[in-house]
Amino acid sequence: AGAKPIVISTWDFGIPANKEAWKVLSSGGKAIDAVEQGVRVPEADPTNQTVGYGGMPDRDGHVTLDACIMDELGNCGSVAGLEHIVHPISVARMVMKKTPHVMLVGDGALQFALENGFKKENLLTPESEKAWKEWLKTARYEPVMNIENKQYEKAAPKTLPGNQYNHDTIGMLALDSKGNLSGACTTSGMAFKLHGRVGDSPLIGAGLYIDNEVGGATSTGVGEEIIRNVGSFLVVELMRQGYTPEDACKEAVMRIIKKKPDTAKKIQVGFLALNKKGEYGAYAIQSGFSYAVCTAEKDDLLIPGKSYY
Ligand code: SD4
């Protein structure tokens, strides 16, 4: 009790998302409500081509969304490959609340959403459709780096088909005034992925993990490498052993680099962690990763994540 609330989230679009989450936290609300409200902001933003509405489609032109949410009691809900719904995070929360399951996928997730009052909408914006059609000309699947990474923008310019807007999931972690932790993670996944491909973001333990005794972690980047290492769970378990949030994120990144040094040179993966005391940290393979922090004192901070390269 008597904790100082804090919310942190991935990338610069975490700033407006944190603001929304902060409204909940600053009025004494629950972390689980804060993270849901927070990530709904980028989900609804059509200019954000990596989350929710406006997200990049898969190679067949379908916008398929992945999201999960986890609370302080270890309750969790998740959807993967969900089409036509602007707020997959709220569907994930409903899976958590209303069903005996953790995860729904594809048509079943859509059916569940529609039965629960979510509206069916077209998520493919003209901009994302245009980028997809451009990509189809070569149809090369080369997920190279996040768009903020200047160093790699040269090698893989945004204009090069297949490289646009590939990794920018929002992962958010919050600690509320009662000292409870929750997290949310939502994405349209890797642009131009195979139809049916699921990333780390909707997988509890990979894209997100919360243990209210210890802390929480979330991830962004090439999901396959995060899944292989059960990244977010690993970060939380390392914090349990006494690692600081940043050291835990670093060790999780090092596992990826150690196992696949050549792959790691060419991809981005970043972890973000928050512990029970409200201490936070991040670490990424490549430079260019950033995260947003919001507390009563430090409103709207954007922090460059440390990185291996
Ligand atoms: C995925 N991790 O689907 C997501 C993509 C991502 O920043 O994080 N982008 O693999």
UniProtKB/TrEMBL annotation:
InterPro entries linked: Ntn_hydrolases_N, Peptidase_T2
Species this protein is from: Pedobacter psychroterrae
Top-level division of the source organism's lineage: Bacteria
Active site: T169 (nucleophile)
Entry protein name: Glycosylasparaginase
Site feature (Cleavage) residues: D168, T169
Pfam families cross-referenced by the UniProt entry: Asparaginase_2 (PF01112)
SUPFAM superfamilies attached to this UniProt entry: N-terminal nucleophile aminohydrolases (Ntn hydrolases)
GO cellular component terms listed in the entry, alphabetical order: cytoplasm
Binding site for substrate: R197, V198, G199, D200, T220, G221, V222, G223
GO molecular function annotations of the record: hydrolase activity, acting on carbon-nitrogen (but not peptide) bonds, in linear amides
